[in-house]
Predict the structure.
Amino acid sequence: MPFPLVHGREKGYRRDAVEAFLAKARAAFESGDGSVDARAVREVGFPLVRNGYQVAAVDAALGRIEDAFAARRRQAVVATEGAAAWVERARADAQEILDRLARPRGKRFQRVSFLSYGYAPKEVDVVADRITAFLQSGDPLTTEQGRAAAFRMTRRGFREEQVDALLDSVVDVLLAVR
């Protein structure tokens, strides 16, 4: 078994779905065909079932796989366009993130309607401040912290899609500057 299984009432990732994705990712990595990339690895989701693989173990493996795809991409760009081009892309992405996070606390993202639930603005703002400190001052921030950011749901919260897209961009920048 590639990963430990959950037991009892706990649910884990469906084994066949995980194994199918890992096989697809391995084939794409070995062939270099581009059918799977770092973002696809980050965005993959699996159904939760009883007797599935432990979520934390699979997520840790996916993080390592994402790192490998990102490193390969960086090597390819540096080989074809040079290190300066790679650094400039990362700098431009970081500036775009900073521009979004320069907005006032509580107003960095659109809010959902009064009857809908979104990410808790105060919690998102705490993470946004940590990201800003990393990008402006070099304060520590790891890719694992970027990947693991989670927020409670509240009425009139921030729109999930916008926050998730920004977090994806942050992880891309973190992978680029490793």
Observations:
- The mean pLDDT is 94.
- The two ends are 31 Å apart (CA to CA).
- The helical segments are 15-31, 38-43, 55-81, 83-101, 121-137, 143-148, 160-176.
- The longest strand covers residues 11-13.
